[in-house]
Amino acid sequence: MAGSENEMKSKSVRKRHKCVIIGAVIALVVALATASITTPKISLFRLTNGYCGCCKSLLSAQKYSGIVDDCCCDYETVNRLNEEILYPSLQDLVKTTFFRYFKVKLWCDCPFWPDDGMCRLRDCSVCECPESEFPESFRIPFLRGLPSDDLLCQEGKPQAAVDRTLDSKAFRGWTEIDNPWTNDDETDNAEMTYVNLQLNPERYTGYSGPSARRIWDAIYLENCAKYPSEELCHEERILYKMISGLHSSISIHIAADYLLDESRNLWGQNLTLMYDRVLRYPDRVRNLYFTFLFVLRAVTKAAEYLEQAEYDTGHPTEDLKTHSLIRQLLFNPKLQAACPVPFDEAKLWKGQRGPELKQQIQGQFRNISALMDCVGCEKCRLWGKLQILGLGTALKILFSVNGQEHLGQTLQLQRNEVIALINLLHRLSESVKLVHEMGPAVEMTMAPSAPRRIWQRMQASLFKS
């Protein structure tokens, strides 16, 4: 009888302890919920480097772990390699003279609709640089001079205009050969100019509304009419995921460098936009990781070519540094050991329909490339063209160029393709870094059900038998 009474007392004590713990947890959750309501969202993340680590782990546990779909590397390894190796190397590379200049046609006719965007109006472009600024081997015949930038033509947004300021530079000539994955119009030298990418960062420009939506609608609906769908074959899913991953990366950069207050020219992070456009959709985050590994595979597969390429800009010391950075990126032993084949391209284009399917998807991607001429914001057009060319270069490296297998074919890349490829990898690397570092805290702050999810998980762990 005494034993029974002691057991009842023990159970009562445990129950009281559990109630105290539950009460403390409820207080914590209420405090977090109240903080997320009363604290400005823009400034909250600046306090979250070490903010609520336990809650952070509860939110992110098992969400992005294991092997990245359709790839050969897991999320944890990708994040570690990106933080330790890829992002630091790419940050240095894109600042070098060779990789900070991109050749692009910024005024153009939209081939799909006649009345959209400012791209068709030549007078809306930033003025061409004087011919004397180009090295002798890169001087091009100018058809006509273009007038000064008209901000009204950029939808009244000065941040949408491209800064064409160039410093003195020189390039050795590379092969000029069409890329069958991208719009051939981009090799027309007479209508192209160099842009300093460091002076024109990918960020918010004010370009939004029907014009911007029309571009993405055309990309997804006209080129990927069934996507995403269970009916898709493996190759069609790859194209969809690649475009979705790029879209996620672009949205991340817009949100990470956003014009918060135009009157004060105040820039910062728009966490609400980042959450609404990307982080609240796990598939978009997963597709970002996929696209990153897809492009990384292309870069590592072309390692021998990229190692031997000329990076001569007339600045010997910096050119040696560029070559050294390329080698460090391509042949890092940690990268080779941890993720030697980020994506296995050998699995694609198999079966009887392989060649036909390749031709079909190649045509779809060319359409996507051509759609960049319809973007109604000059700076958005610049980064859209660069990143689509980067993806097209990755496709060119990984797959045969005309729908047939050419095992003995020698890879040939244009200088512009290499510049686009490395800058695209850097953009994706930065997006992955931002998602990995910011994602859990942003989700905890923005998701309306986040406190409830934390409580449910804590409750489940407390009442485990």
Automatic annotation (TrEMBL):
Q: Tell me where it resides.
A: Endoplasmic reticulum membrane
How is this protein organized at the quaternary level? Answer: May function both as a monomer and a homodimer.
Origin species, per record, is: Jatropha curcas
Pfam families, alphabetized: ERO1
Family affiliation: Belongs to the EROs family.
Give GO cellular component annotations, separated by semicolons: endoplasmic reticulum membrane
Q: What's in the keyword line of the UniProt record?
A: Disulfide bond, Electron transport, Endoplasmic reticulum, FAD, Flavoprotein, Glycoprotein, Membrane, Oxidoreductase, Redox-active center, Signal, Transport
- Write the protein's name: Uncharacterized protein
Q: Which GO terms describe its biological process?
A: protein folding in endoplasmic reticulum
Binding-site residues for FAD, renumbered to this chain: R203, T205, W216, S244, H247, R277
Q: How does it sit in the membrane?
A: Peripheral membrane protein
Q: Provide the active-site residues from the annotation.
A: C377 (nucleophile), C380
> Disulphide bridges in this chain?
C119-C124, C377-C380
* InterPro entries membership: Ero1, ERO1-like_sf
Gene Ontology molecular function terms on file: FAD binding; protein-disulfide reductase activity; thiol oxidase activity
Q: What is its main location?
A: endoplasmic reticulum
The cofactor required is: FAD
